[in-house]
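fyi for ur records
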Amino acid sequence: MADERARYFRRLRRLRRSARRWSVLAGGLGGAAAVLTPYAGIGLADAAWAGGAGSAIAIAAWRWADLRAFAAVPAPPALDPAEAAARSRARLVAAVERLPAGPGVLAEVRRVRSRLALRGTTAAEAWARLDRAALTLQGMSGRLTGLAEPALREAAEADRSLRDLAARVASVERALKLAPAEARGSLADAHGTLAAQLESGVSAYEGLVVAAAGYVAEDARPSTEHPAAARLTEATDLLHGVASALAELRTVNTPFRPRTP
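which gave:
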């Protein structure tokens, strides 16, 4: 709606500018034709001046008619300030996402904002542990292929579920501080149950990350020496051999000089 309102006023300004330009042009051509047209008759150049003036006057009249017709249409209603701010924020997010590093920046901003929302609750520590484990798993995700791909999908689903659970634990904890004394018992029990579920879920997620690290380590570890180390050893031996051969050639090519008494 905000775009439609802005588009309406932009078009209104364009029509007004166009009508004014054609009015000025029509006045100039009309005045020139009135001054330059001789009384004894109209030549070819005078006909061109008169024709241009008449065309400009007609177009100016059409532009003013279009302006009046468009101005008679009511402008779209203004947006609520909150909705306008939300749309502006959405446009800003879309613009940042188009940048090369945009998705990573937005993910970090959302992560920090979510962590700040849980500050001061028992869920904050579990959230921080989950955050560290998720970042560690994200760093290994490119190597978790083949048989490890289903575990990676399960980890992503568990991450979303645990973050939602952490938000619920924080909400219940805040409500517990405001609840009357007679309602605190059942609410405290519910909070304890949710907090225990969150703790066990985060621990299980950390165990999955440790297992993923073991998979990556075993998948990258060869049965013997690493190929890169073997190639470097061969290259080192080759360089040593070449250096020894060059030293021997230098000794052979050195001319014999007898000692003088």
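Residues 100-220 form one domain. thats all i got for now
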